[in-house]
Amino acid sequence: MTRAVDLLKNRFGVSQLYKHDVKQNDEIILTIYWHPLTIAEREAIQKKTGSDDTNEFALNLMIEKALDVDSKRIFQDGDKASLRREVEANVLQEIQLAMIEAGQTRGVKEAKADLKSE
After folding, report:
1. CATH number for the domain whose boundaries are 4-117
2. In the chain, where are the structural domains located?
3. Which DSSP letter does residue 71 get?
4. Which of 15, 72, 98, 103 could be joined to 20 by an S-S link, Cβ 3.0–4.6 Å?
5. Residue 49 and residue 56: Cα distance in Å, rounded?
């Protein structure tokens, strides 16, 4: 019999990959990938945020989790100030919302299939 922890790891583990395309006028400007957020990562990001500010948490989440097609981080901690001051808030919020809602609106298999086709 499969153990509950193994069943959960197999179905909802961190090996899953999600993706979001940032578009402007139907042109893909940037494709962002990420693995699901774990409790440990959430706690580390909250600690790094240092407050209950949800905007700050979401920005730190995006910076920490956003990957390119080769699974390399696309943002560095030093990008935070520039992102806050020089990028439209609605674009950042779109990415952050996609990350927070991952798995609810888009299946994991679709994202993996998309990644393999690129």
Report:
1. 3.30.2220
2. 4-117
3. S
4. 98
5. 6
- Please give the Cα distance from 22 to 40 (Å, whole number): 27
Q: Calculate helix-pair angle for 54-65, 39-49, nearest 10 degrees.
A: 120
Q: Give per-residue pLDDT as tens, 17-57.
A: 999 999 999 999 999 999 998 899 999 999 998 888 999 99
CB-count exposure of residue 83 (10 Å: 0-12, 13-18, 19+)? middle
Six-digit token pair at 40? 């440990």
Q: How far apart are CA 9 and CA 114, in angstroms?
A: 22
Stated as kind and residue range, the H or E segment containing 19 is strand 18-24
Residue holding tokens 């494709």? 31
Instruction: Kindly report the pTM of this predicted structure.
Output: 0.78
Query: What is the number of H-type helices and E-type strands within the chain?
Result: 6, 2
